[in-house]
Records
---
Amino acid sequence: MPDHTPEQIDRAVTTAAAAADAWARTTPQTRAALLRGLADALEAERETLVPLADAETSLGAARLNGELDRTAFQLRGFADQVLAGAPFMMTDDTAVPGPPPAGRPRLTRVRVPVGPVAMFAASNFPFAFSVLGGDTASALAAGCPVVVKAHPGHPELSRAVATLAQRVVAAQGLPAGVFGMVEGAAAAVGVQLVRHPLIAAVAFTGSYRGGSALQREANERPRPIPFYGELGAINPVVALPAAIAAGGAALAATLAGSITLGCGQFCTSPGVLIVHDDAASQAFVQQLAEALGAATPHRMLHAGIRAGFDAGVMRMQQHRGVRVLAAPEHGETAPRPRLFATDAASFIESEALHEEVFGPSCLVVTVKSPDETLAVLQAVQGSLTVTLWGAEADTADNRPLIRAAERIAGRVLFAGVPTGVAVTAAQQHGGPWPASTQPFTTSVGYAAMDRFLRPVALQDAPAWLIEAKGQA
Amino acid sequence: MPDHTPEQIDRAVTTAAAAADAWARTTPQTRAALLRGLADALEAERETLVPLADAETSLGAARLNGELDRTAFQLRGFADQVLAGAPFMMTDDTAVPGPPPAGRPRLTRVRVPVGPVAMFAASNFPFAFSVLGGDTASALAAGCPVVVKAHPGHPELSRAVATLAQRVVAAQGLPAGVFGMVEGAAAAVGVQLVRHPLIAAVAFTGSYRGGSALQREANERPRPIPFYGELGAINPVVALPAAIAAGGAALAATLAGSITLGCGQFCTSPGVLIVHDDAASQAFVQQLAEALGAATPHRMLHAGIRAGFDAGVMRMQQHRGVRVLAAPEHGETAPRPRLFATDAASFIESEALHEEVFGPSCLVVTVKSPDETLAVLQAVQGSLTVTLWGAEADTADNRPLIRAAERIAGRVLFAGVPTGVAVTAAQQHGGPWPASTQPFTTSVGYAAMDRFLRPVALQDAPAWLIEAKGQA
């Protein structure tokens, strides 16, 4: 299938723009019905969609069924949020008579759907971060039409899900422009979408390189628009001696499971392990190496991602100051997990070691003191997550460690592994650069809607308008 | 006084960074005490500060006393917000047992002060948008140290206010880095500040040109940071026939007062008036021209701003399709207000007419239909405000008009004039590009704090940490 032509892309956007006003004015009931209808349709077509996804991504039926469940759960969760009134919340300040600064008119702060959203699907979550994933669900919930840029890694699945979505939109009597999709492997397709004057915001999940390039396009438009990019991270795990003593080999196995989950193709995959320079910690690293050696990941998503992984592994192997802990035979079809080791000083001074290796690979950084841990975290600068094992107690060492983690991450874990991102109101998936381009926003969880609702203060607004905004 | 040297600027930022952790961890009481102490000190030194401000800005004692009142009111308002817990609010999702997607760990969404904020003072509000203005107040309230870049338009006042602030910081036993200031007329001073690796966010109020240049610097850092720029607007006023019939000459006088307020040097100054093509509306325009002719504004802030106004007036006068309605003698020391007129088609097709003329000038756009009004507003693209006079009723003409206004503005007024921005929780001062660089945020009102508080999700956090975050 050839790339969509400039005319097709323009038509998709203008159709979305034509639907924007009507969709922005829908009742909570109408909006929730679409989100739930999409969830129902995904589940109804599970038997068709999962095999299609597996053939195109190699992720396996178990994982893909779980991902479809999550995607439907998420659509219904946003429906609940809409019915609970989240997009229609307002702050209403009554008028105060008298001169300023205390005197004031009535001001009512509402939120207005921003307009058509361009949504770039990711390759590594063919359901949850693709056509009907979190970005689409949150934009629709916010009252914005969506134009999806399909990921070329799973074209048949994307078409099947888009067809399903368009059928639900039509069945509910909604304008076709509420949901549209364009296709194309060429960068020009995405660039045209981001540059289109009628696109009001962009949501992107993918590589640092692709995301940075599209962000530049968004910033350089005659009228710049928000670019919400989630560009990956190295997700440090700090394993303090107490946690290692308590967790032992089981903890090492848990970590190996997180590193190899989905063949390491998670934006929250732990890419750095920070341990102390003591015998128990180094034994833990050995247990991790053994657990990784026993793991048998599936194939990667496509040849380009595999080539990227092999290049990243080569970069590590050849890096001065990095030792190879697990360097198994080169996997023919599936890659073998890798484990590397270095010291704090080498890590801090080398920017190359702060770059994500997308795939089942982890770099162990051995530190000699709590202060070195802080310095290693500071060198990371920005990450989706930091995991702190053994930092639960309120101590003089733990307090600065927690602050250092908060400073660089959108999510700080005190237990468990960073892979697996719950869809809740409190979730924050997005951290300081380079993890995301707008670290004050999240692409997972119900606060994701906020990205598409711009605040407007209505001054001395008539009662009927305030009532309509509240959808009460 | 020469520009601050690179060493002085670096010292100001590193001192702020050294204070960041301690200030972020202050109790609500400590933070509120500083904000109230600053308000008290400003009021106590009123008799010194207002004459200093008047000598440097020509804005007059009445206005400057009012502005000092507003600045103190604002500092105390943020103190109240801090005591009410606004920066410490959290979303706490309890754990749900069972497998995902419904099962989940406990997630607690908190907000973390972003770190040292570089704050660029404006020339046109020497108190309210300068050294201790809204940006400083909101950053301090959020728990971030501030490094002010003083505006060279009022250097003596800036130094006096900075000295006062540093005295209050010291008297309260706080680290000196909580508040700092650098000076310099050269662009390099601001650029160094924005590029400094320890600066975490930038707040700017000023010109489109200066703001765009600094935003580029913020985006092109190795680690980009949020740039919150408020760059001005043309603030259309739509005067519908019903409002003109009801308001008459008094309404024209009110509008003339808003256009000439502070010699037109307000970012919310009404620069475009949209009226219908009927006799009463054109009579209203004539009344406006007369009221403007009778107005006697004071001098502008400085020679550069005056030169910019004269150039803008020249641009209007020479523009094809623009008629001159009020072209009085050239004022020797103070400029004379100007009124120009054009038709919808000329306005829509010429980008030059969408540019702000900073000063007492307004362009009347006559429309032939409600649809032409929508097209004129759409051509404006982004503005801090849109004022709709006579659009209170729920009619088929008013509904799309209100939507068109919401689409391009951060504040939509149904009565009164756009100059004068109340400091409340509901306020939104910031609209789509080019009005502001981050139109989802506000630089006036209590939501201004949100710009400096980055969300972080704590997963399975210990109880003591959640309690400390809540400051309960």
---
Amino acid sequence: MDASHSSLPHVVVIGGGFAGLWCTRALAREAVRITLIDRTNHHLFQPLLYQVATAGLSSPDIAAPLRHILRRQRNVEVRLGEVVGIDSVRRSVQLADGTSVAYDYLLVASGATHSYFGRDEWARVAPGLKTLDDALAIRRRVLTAFERAESASSEDERDAWLSFVIVGGGPTGVELAGTLAEIARHTLKREFRHIDPARAAVRLIEAGPRVLASFPESLSEKARAQLASLGVTVLTGAPVKAIDADGVEVGETRIASKTVLWAAGVAASALGAELARAFSVETDRAGRVKVKPDLSVDVESRVYVAGDLAHIADGDRMVPGVAPAAKQMGAHVANAIRASLRSARPQPFQYRDFGNLATIGRLAAIVDLRGLKFSGPLAWAFWLLAHVFFLIGFRNRLVVMLNWAWSYWTYQRSARIILGENSPPAARDS
Amino acid sequence: MDASHSSLPHVVVIGGGFAGLWCTRALAREAVRITLIDRTNHHLFQPLLYQVATAGLSSPDIAAPLRHILRRQRNVEVRLGEVVGIDSVRRSVQLADGTSVAYDYLLVASGATHSYFGRDEWARVAPGLKTLDDALAIRRRVLTAFERAESASSEDERDAWLSFVIVGGGPTGVELAGTLAEIARHTLKREFRHIDPARAAVRLIEAGPRVLASFPESLSEKARAQLASLGVTVLTGAPVKAIDADGVEVGETRIASKTVLWAAGVAASALGAELARAFSVETDRAGRVKVKPDLSVDVESRVYVAGDLAHIADGDRMVPGVAPAAKQMGAHVANAIRASLRSARPQPFQYRDFGNLATIGRLAAIVDLRGLKFSGPLAWAFWLLAHVFFLIGFRNRLVVMLNWAWSYWTYQRSARIILGENSPPAARDS
């Protein structure tokens, strides 16, 4: 089969996210063989992951098997595995199963995970949202909290189960808070007998001075107002000091809560440190690799970094960790490899910023298209169309549209199924 | 709220399956208060569970939150909990969380689980299919097996990963075997580079003389032929002697296989033994409770059993453990409770047998409508319509129909997402 023509240059891509997948696809007609390695069997449409966490969509709606996406691209081999080391001398990557894979070109696009700023013990009590497994764990916690509130034996216990705290006022935190408020106020209406879910307290806590800080101040203000009208209490300038199973400490205040979700910190994949070790490149505070203008770790190495793992300047700020940037970087690395194969000079990466969107909840979003700013229902419709349009695969788009049309009219959420409740404790808390 | 009018007679229903839910709904206009207790938050449409296991449907397609189904029935309170004991003197049930719930009327409809005939160590290597968590575990195993085959380092290893054994030739075993063969031959086509998934061996092993033994012999023969044409090797008269992580022993033969699925034995819920202890009723070999003709454990107790947990005769055979029988029993118990409230005599339960269907795979099924027998594409269409029609909730029906239409034309299966692969080993094997 094509992919095993071992005389062709071997491109190894680590990570099947936006950067890795876009690079792989862009090399479809090149005389190379590609091995795409991922820890999971699927490409994940991360921008809609919060919808899985909040029971609006099912896992398969926003994920597709990498093998299936790439089945017709005969120069690619997909491999399920976890890369644990990179050997710059032998030019190979080591997998957790003990095997190694030699490369001529290497793209490391293993993305980011959440960071607890050195307080890793918070992970158990305040789960973050990066993978489908994370999303299902959050869904389980949120739905179970209402069940526990219903059967609580005291007022205090009930209130603690009806108290939700989201730490971090970035896009994920805002989406989670807005959607949770909608679930409490509308979705669960009439379903309980001892509690009124609409009385649930949803608090969004941000250490900095405003939510959605990557947007202009005026849009942050709009977002805050929209969150308030959905029923979310927004606390800014409020750094979290402690989190335990019964609540959070914010400044001098303690908030009782049985359900704390973490949307605050991002840390680059551990392969950033591995690249720093192997190629003597620098990393930034979040562990991202400071790449050369062509996205390589050094111009001779033929080793590249793209997506959330890459640190690269865009004028006086950094290229943001968003899907369009990752796709552009992936495509750029494909071009750099193509140039190298033809002994041409690599071009520097140029980020094309098409704008910035964030959704908040039903009919609530903000949009900043390079100066054209708007918010509210129109922004929400714009966000919806943009996201459904970019979903991979026609079937997914159709199902997601149908799901949303249904949810919109009925306020219902189709995926309100608690899974894993009979699993051992280790699984329940994973 | 209505459900807390404590002066009304209290009906406690254990289990939100077909029997429990149908009884609960039938009492909607009765002057009672009902507490429905279930270990999970959802009603599960069990006849399509194999589709979740084989990645054709998502969990929410075949499950709906009990609270949501019953939100408008104000005399019901839904409680998430596990019943661990029944006290016939105090007339109360004990929950795992230490609380207890008193009843005036009790319906125990906690169903069945799989039985390994005393070989519980087989559970780890040969998972069964009763819950959504089971289905996701089987899906993970099956999809992972093809991944492992692709990266196998020897022929023997590859063949063992491409060898699937299903133990038990009842409806679940036949559905799993037929669908697995379809996945191997069609769904995964072109997606791998080192293996040909179509060469996977799918074996269905049945200890008795024929598959689908609850059907007439001629239809069993048709089913066997349809399985063979889908690519399944059927072994009958083949009792399993041993199962381990590397294969099964059948008679004198050893079959190497990394993926063994269990569809052989059914055991009643542990509450059967609890009822036997508390009310001195008999249970059969599978642990089902031998109930009185009105489905009570004794006519005075006002304690009833329905669904897969009940053992009751239908002429010279037993009422089968199928969804229509469970619904009928649930509705009958509602009538018995209504009669008791009016001090009327209870009627004996009469099973109305509308026929028996089993699906085998694409365009393959058998139907036995009280003598009118047919098989093949027509039987498959009949099965499809009957199952989609009985799915709870309009949205589910629509999504499932769309999913199936899509799968039918493309051979694709939408839910091919391996979840939980980064969970701790305990979770992976749960």
